[in-house]
Design brief:
Length: 466
Amino acid sequence: MKKFNDNFWWGASSSAFQIEGAWNEDSKGESIADYNSFKHSDQQADTKVASDFYHHYQEDIKLMKQMGMKAYRFSIAWTRIIPDGDGIVNQAGIDFYNHVIDECLANDIIPFVTLYHFDLPLALVKKYNGWASRDCVRAFRRYAQICFKAFGDRVKNWQVINEQNLMVRVNERMNMDNVPQDEVEKVRAQMDYHMFLACAYAMNDCHQMVAGGKIGPAISSTMTYPVSDQPLDVWAAKMNDNFKTNYALEMYCFGKYPGYYRHFLQEQGIYPQTASGDDAVLASAHPDFIAVNYYRTLAAEYLPADQEHPVGQRVSDIDFDLYGYFKIKKNQHLKATEYGAQIDPLGLRLVLNEYYEKYRLPMIITENGLGTADKLTEDGKVHDQYRIDYLKAHIEACYDAIQDGVELFGYCPWSVMDILSSHQGFKKRYGFIYVNRTDFDLKDMRRIPKDSYYWYQKVIKNNGLE
Ligand code: BG6
């Protein structure tokens, strides 16, 4: 048996815009996630109904309890609490999350709450161009304080922003579609900085306002292998991790950009505008843990700059290449999902060890999973052995990392049930529980536990792997 600690948080995850639906019910405001999803409403499901957790939460939490979950990682929609982002507080939104939190607690499930998962209020985009403005920092701080005050008596564990380090790379998520091309990187760097500041305020406020409260960032982890043993390729792989994830971890944990990143921003002329007092705020904030989202690893080689491509020029978004630094390559040694994610359980052990060595903070996996088109077969079941294989291998990697000395206190795979995939609607499913709908046919929205649900139930019951 590969047994875990008795207090290990076996859980699962979701986010508001992907699971809740009821996008404008009970005075909820429109978010950037709603807005972007409506742009693709003719191609795939949007946020309007999603998995309709808003109307099914009692039944859904009951299923979570039956699976044995000890923790449920979910996010609060800022636009339910404050529909326009920085105006009137919507009591109906507070009531909804009170019900969800109370239902979790009544079922002995720890509510583990993310404050902001890709769903900035659209009103803030219109008013301030979102995170480009310090007004957005002020608005987020107020929203976070409202949440700590309303829910902090029962919610003791918080994540601030989900995958800031990934979100900031995607222009659509950051509402940068209309920013002139030559200003994009400057605006991006400014938005990123404001989110770090907002995060620092939220961490400090949580510590002050929530008795026994713990809070940390949820990052999109990156683990990059060099394609060869050429020193420049090794450096390129390191810099890919540094530019996509490690700079952010340094900011969260130590309150300042590492030298290589500061130097890059200065050299590119895109160092963000700061205000006096920011340094002290950033330095005073300390996370209690790191929440790690892990799906895959990358491989990279050195990418020299040339006449046409100056140092610092980016190509693409999520897995961008950077001239003068790195180019992403396919790893020939790994199998990939149909959507191209290279499956690599050992990479999880490596990345957990790396973060622990550097930051010495407890960690929890808040996302890890396999997205694919599951089939409801004639026997009324979903036989997702491929998902079981994926999760099993990654849980083994967690076990190994713990043996290596890493303080890992929980595993919350993505996702608790089928939810709206951020890119492929309901074509790509991640859940333990099948939701009987397709992109364009809501059918009966029935919840059907998949084979992986019963398998995970056993893992939790045994507190580990046989
Ligand atoms: C993570 C996000 O980056 O990846 C989730 O936090 C997202 O919101 C998940 O759903 C999987 O990505 P996708 O595009 O397959 O939904």
